[in-house]
Design a protein that fits this description.
Mean pLDDT: 94
Low-confidence stretches: none
Shape: elongated
Number of helices: 7
Largest sheet: none
Helix content: 55-70%
Strand content: under 5%
Order of helices and strands: HHHHHHH
Length: 90
């Protein structure tokens, strides 16, 4: 699935949570992970937090209201020290 195809399918709400989880696991496109990092589903945001290499996405998710999302960021080996420091103060 291309990024454009994903955007259309996602916007139409045609994808189940299981399909979205599968996309996160297989995805190498940070544009798709960026979109999914804003998903209403907590589990999807957690999976993105653990997988993404984007500092911008990690920074945004570090401010997520749910503790679990922030916890998954701490398990991401790509998280910058600045974000880890921010998380340690929350």
């Amino acid at each position: 699935m291309t990024c454009k195809e994903f955007i259309v399918q996602y916007a139409l709400g045609c994808m189940s949570d299981d399909e979205l989880k599968d996309i996160v696991y297989r995805c190498k496109d940070e544009r798709i992970l960026d979109i999914l990092s804003k998903d209403k589903n907590l589990i999807i945001r957690c999976l993105v937090a653990r997988k993404t290499t984007s500092k911008e996405i990690l920074d945004r998710l570090s401010k997520d209201e749910d503790f679990n999302v922030r916890w998954y960021i701490s398990e991401n080996e790509n998280v910058p020290i600045k974000i880890l420091s921010y998380l340690s103060k929350r």
